[in-house]
Amino acid sequence: MKQHLVIFDTTLRDGEQSPGASMTKEEKIRVARQLEKMRVDVIEAGFAAASPGDFDSIHSIAQAIKDSTVCSLARANENDIRRAGEAIKPAKSGRIHTFIATSPIHMEKKLRMTPDQVVEQAVKSIGWARQYTGDIEFSAEDAGRSEIDFLCRIFEEVIKAGATTINVPDTVGYNIPQQYADTIRQLIERVPNSDKVVWSVHCHNDLGLAVANSLAAVMAGARQVECTINGLGERAGNASLEEIVMAVRTRSDVFPVETRIETTQIVPASKLVSQITGYPVQPNKAVVGANAFAHESGIHQDGVLKHRETYEIMRAQDVGWTQNKLVLGKHSGRNAFKTRLSELGIELDSDETLNAAFARFKELADKKHEIFDEDLHALVSDEVVTPDQEYYKLVYSHVCSETGELPFAKVILNVGGVEKKGEAGGGGPVDATFKAIESIAGSGAELLLYSVNAITTGTDAQGEVTTRLALGERIVNGNGADTDIVIASARSYLNALNKLHSSRDKVKAQGDV
Length: 513
Prior knowledge:
The protein is an alpha/beta fold and 513 residues long. It has helices at 25-37, 52-64, 78-87, 104-111, 115-129, 148-161, 177-190, 210-219, 241-250, 266-277, 298-306, 334-343, 351-367, 373-383, 429-441, 485-501, and strands at 3-4, 6-9, 42-47, 69-75, 94-101, 136-141, 165-170, 198-203, 224-227, 257-258, 326-328, 371-372, 392-400, 408-415, 418-425, 446-454, 463-471, 474-482. Helix content is 38%, strand content 21%.
């Protein structure tokens, strides 16, 4: 009988640490609902002590989610753990995930603590967490570069104190599969009462080995994998959920475990996270890339037509590629629109927001013959902006671009309730529009990224634009969608400006877990 492999998704915490990938509370709830629909075991909803906004998001997700465990990260100090405990209090099933660094370089240079002090602090942290929940995960940050004897010592002590999951993270993506698997195997063999806890792994992708290391660890006895949708995460990212899940499922002849993941929800989850964060999925990305099931070679095409399994080890429909059907049209009513949003895990918090989104839907349906699920996600992402965030709003734009002439743009913005006009020339219609907006906003922000992707197929497809702006140490992504790419670009730029305007400082964790 196969053992259960716990899928711990940290898209909303570690994934959000990707530059500019921060999400609003409403966006986080939408992602959490999709993860619940996908039957993820544990959703790490954030780092409660980082900011009031993070605390509020975790608390709201804990109220909304019923079928997955909701988890908050916390450093091994009393304040962090109490904030995490309060944040997860409404959850039907809640977990506190606490961590402290264990590698010699981290203990000496960052924590400035002795090994004895680190063990003592770790044990204290478990005691504080037990006041809120019996589901406690302990992580040894930078375990991949820690001494095995010290890991055995600290893990033994936190298990005695009441930890129920032990996480062995490769924080900086330094390990290789054989070495990492050997570490996991030794820990399970050497730590007393190792059979009383779930052994977990959290791998970063700095050397492109996050998935390989995670799977090697599973073969060595790990029974929880921490991962993210699309492999999102700080630096080179985390282990990719879709690759972990489909590797275990496809190679059931090799792996002694199985997951409870509803795999048909993988592609919808991938597209949702991509749209919300503004991080597009590369076409050749395994499982969820646009080319993952495409065959160019004539030999391959012939083989697939004769027998699919000649060149395909998975079925596209098993991961959700056939789920994105036409759902609504211009004659669809408000109730059908609301029902479909609910099916997609989108809950609008007021009739006013619903009415505004429905008006946008009707406007889009007049321009576009077919409306797909991706269009609805993009539409709602555009529409669900709380008033305090929408300091800048596009009222009017006029752009002129002629061969041999300098493109020129005029815009009218509503800025804090006051209409202001701006105009500028530029190297192209988008450049001119951005400069016209800046002539009003005067933000001084630096444009780091401008990216355009078609949401669906066809020449009438909405263009989805991501704009990444930097101002000081703050980096934000703005998103905008429209069948007119210049309008989509303007919305994206304004969305980024609004995030900068309403930004709140975040205290980052000591490091990646």
